[in-house]
TrEMBL record:
Residue ranges annotated for the ABM domain, each copy included: 8-97
SUPFAM superfamilies registered for this protein in UniProt: Dimeric alpha+beta barrel
Protein name: Antibiotic biosynthesis monooxygenase family protein
GO MF assignments: monooxygenase activity
InterPro entries associated with the record: ABM_dom, Dimeric_a/b-barrel
Organism this protein belongs to: Pseudonocardia aurantiaca
C-alpha cells in the first residue's frame, strides 16, 4: 500500500485552560461530531488520561493522509481551531502515525 493510501493515526494532546474546560470540551465535542460524519474518518475519541486529569487526548484514525488533509480544510474545523486557541493553555501536541 502506498504511503498516501495508508491509514493515518493521530494522537493529539490537548491542554485546556483550567477555568475554561467546559467551553473547550463543548467545542471539541462539536468538532468531533462533525468529523465523525466525514467519509474519511474511521474513529475519533476524546479521552482523559487517568494520570493527568487537566489534559485530554484525542485519538483519531483517518482512511488516509489525504482524508485527514481534507478534514483539516473543513470550515467547522478551521473555525473551531481558531476558537480553541483562546481556550487552551498551549497549542495542542499533534502526533501523526502509520500502522506497522
Amino acid at each position: 500500500m502506498s504511503e498516501p493510501d495508508r491509514p493515518l493515526f493521530l494522537v493529539v494532546t490537548i491542554r485546556p485552560k483550567l477555568d475554561r474546560m467546559a467551553e473547550a470540551e463543548a467545542q471539541l465535542q462539536s468538532m468531533r461530531r462533525n468529523t465523525l460524519t466525514e467519509p474519511g474518518c474511521v474513529f475519533m475519541h476524546l479521552v482523559q488520561p487517568q494520570d493527568d486529569p487537566d489534559s485530554w487526548v484525542m485519538l483519531e484514525m483517518f482512511r488516509s493522509r489525504a482524508a485527514w488533509d481534507e478534514h483539516m480544510r473543513q470550515p467547522y474545523n478551521v473555525e473551531g481551531n481558531i476558537i480553541l486557541e483562546d481556550l487552551l493553555r498551549q497549542p495542542s501536541d499533534l502526533r501523526l502515525m502509520n500502522a506497522k
